[in-house]
Amino acid sequence: MTFEVRHWIGGERVGSAETFTDVSPIDEQPIAEVARGGAAEVDLAVAAAARAFPAWARTSREERARLLHAVADGVEKRIEELAQLETSDNGALIRSHRRGVMPRVAHNFRFFADRLLRLGHEDFETRGHRNHVSWDPAGVCALITPWNAPLMLATWKIAPALAAGDTVVLKPAEWTPLTASLLADIMVEAGVPDGVFNVVQGYGAEVGGPLTAHPDVRRISFTGSVPTAKTIAAAAAPNLTPLSLELGGKSPLLIFADADLDLAVDLAVEQYDNAGQVCLAATRLLVESPIADAFTERLLARVAEIRQGDPREESTDIGPQIHRRHVERVDGFVRRAKEAGARALIGGGPNEDLGGLYYRPTLFAGAAEGSEILTEEVFGPVLTLQTFDSEEQAVAMANGTRYGLAATLATGDPERAERVSARLVSGTTWVNCFFVRDLRAPFGGSRQSGMGREGGDWSFDFYCDLKNTVTAPWAEQWEK
Ligand SMILES: NC(=O)C1=CN([C@@H]2O[C@H](COP(=O)(O)OP(=O)(O)OC[C@H]3O[C@@H](n4cnc5c(N)ncnc54)[C@H](O)[C@@H]3O)[C@@H](O)[C@H]2O)C=CC1
Ligand SMILES: O=C(O)/C=C/C=C(\O)C(=O)O
Q1: How many domains does the chain contain in total?
Q2: Which of 71, 294, 355, 448 is most buried, judged by most C-beta within 10 A?
């Protein structure tokens, strides 16, 4: 049985003349009929957010923080429901949603609520004049989010925007519309005023197009692909709307001969998590030549053990790809890599036993330097293996793409770790670990992996208009 999902605009569920069908990647069965928004719904939502903005911006920091904690409480009460909904919608593991992702969703609200209360109001003097630096709310924020970690990535944006005193129009990915819709219910239960949080469902160009071109939108924050980011930047340009972009990657995992080999293999296997649909995934394994054979042998044995299947089973390690179109995209990369002479050491095609959208964990070797499989983001369970003979060469290979989102290195030498990480072009570098995340840290990418950073006060930098008010010394008559 499917259910109906409508937009959430100005505190009301709003439908559209047309709908589209949301399909579960687990079995390609329809799960919801979703309102298909367009320019009219965007106008309604931006107007509702603009109307709600002045009162929300004037609401005290303490009250905004209290409401965000109430939203976090609501998320915590519904962890199981959210986990099940998200797993049915995007096919990621229920065990990750239960124990990692949904608790992090709640944490996102708590973190930015608490951070808001600690945001400075810096005051200092210049020749007797008082400078007062404030973080003013900016206005309506358009938040456009992807399908690989739908609610987690959306709440990285929603929580700081609301904390900052901004109002929000969220456009979730059309392949994963469900948890954003449930979040609207949680907002209502928490007491967030109508119009402060709005959701417009629909396709990228149809909703995202008018939203990013809207003159009343003061901020655009986007997580997704580089081509879409360029379209958004072009739409935002006439209004000079500030942009935060968190984009893709082709991150390296550098494994030096002095590394703990078991750890290195563990780190490599982790890159298949979420069936490779993770922007941070270190999909390029760069291995120092003397240990390449031993590393490869152990890695292949471990990859063969990855349990692929129904993500609702606790024992499953990786589930399906998000959508048939995405499988075709991933498979296109794999076919072209083979045609160009790369060898699939394992995997290399869909998992026909599971049918539909499951793609075998794949490892390529022998890809030609500069070839597509070594330079373009696949966003599937596809890794490549290359060897290097010196630290210099390793750094050059690691930095040799247009991306700069993340890098991981495995080495037993602390000095090498410092030397190499200092030279990597990467928003986040992990040494002998992977995916250790903390909202206090800046998150984002260099080069074409993005623009700006999320997390900590960097989120407030983006969602606020920073202002300095300079006041001359008051003459005595004014002070009376
Ligand atoms: N977190 C990340 O870094 C992500 C990276 N990707 C990369 O992008 C590739 C393609 O996936 P897609 O789903 O097509 O990503 P996408 O970047 O097109 O979609 C992300 C979001 O942007 C919206 N969007 C699409 N066109 C838009 C437009 N013209 N204006 C405003 N919003 C628009 C979509 O509806 C969705 O909400 C993936 O294979 C992967 O390489 C995709 C999703 C997440
Ligand atoms: O979970 C995180 O801290 C970061 C996740 C980011 C992605 O998975 C992404 O944008 O693809």
Answers
A1: 2
A2: 71
CA–CA gap between residue 71 and residue 184 (Å, rounded): 10
Task: Name the token pair of 27.
Answer: 């079995």
pLDDT at 475: 76
What are the Cα distances from residue 219, in Å, to 51, 206, 235, 477? 16, 19, 12, 42
Q: pTM surpassing 0.90?
A: yes
| Residues 298 and 338 reside in one and the same domain | yes
Q: Look at residues 431, 446, 463 and tell me which one is the last residue of a structural domain.
A: 431
149 ligand 2 Cβ < 6 A: yes
Relative to beta strand 197-199, strand 167-171 is parallel
- Rounded mean pLDDT, 298-304: 98
Asked if 199 and 314 sit in the same domain, the reply is no
Per-residue confidence band for 355, with pLDDT thresholds at 50, 70 and 90:
confident
Question: Which residue's alpha carbon is nearest to atom 37 within ligand 1?
Answer: 173
**Could you identify the atom of ligand 1 that is nearest to the CA of residue 322?**
13
Q: State the chain's mean pLDDT as an integer.
A: 97
Confidence of residue 120 (pLDDT cuts 50, 70, 90): confident
Task: Tell me whether residue 457 is in a domain.
Answer: no
Atom of ligand 2 nearest to the CA of 152: 1
Instruction: Ligand 1: list residues with CB < 6 Å.
Output: 144-148, 171, 173-174, 204-205, 208-209, 212, 223-225, 228, 231-232, 247-248, 279, 329, 377, 379
pLDDT in tens, 75-103: 999 999 999 999 999 999 999 999 999 99
Taking the C-alpha atoms of residue 67 and residue 349, their distance in angstroms, rounded to an integer, is 48
Predicted pLDDT of residue 14 = 98
Quote the strand ranges of 301-423, DSSP E: 343-346, 362-365, 382-388, 403-404, 406-410
Q: What is the DSSP string of 157-195?
A: HHHHHHHHT-EEEEE--TT--HHHHHHHHHHHHHTPPTT
Q: Cα(194) to centroid of ligand 1, in Å?
A: 28
Q: Residue 309: which domain range?
A: 252-431
pLDDT surpassing 60 at residue 478: no
Same domain assignment for residues 50 and 76? yes
pLDDT value at residue 121:
73
Predicted local distance difference test score (pLDDT) of residue 230: 98
Q: How far apart are CA 217 and CA 50, in angstroms?
A: 9
Tell me, yes or no, whether 34 lies in a domain: yes
Instruction: Give me 292's structure tokens.
Output: 């390449």
ipTM of the complex: 0.97
Using alpha carbons only, give the angle 197, 5, 309 rounded to the nearest 5 degrees. Answer: 105
Structure tokens at 275: 């069936």
Identify whether residues 75 and 180 lie together within a single domain: yes
